[in-house]
Amino acid sequence: MAVSSEEFRAALSRFASGVTVVTSVDGEGRRHGITVSAFCSVSLEPPLVLVCIEKLAGSHASLAESGRFSVNLLASGQQWISERFASLESDKFRDVPTAPGLTGLPLIVGSLASLECEVRQAVDAGDHSVFIGEVMSARGNGGDPLLYFLGDYRSLDLG
Question: Which of 1, 31, 54, 62 fits a disulfide with 24 by CB distance 3.0 to 4.6 angstroms?
Answer without folding.
Answer: 62
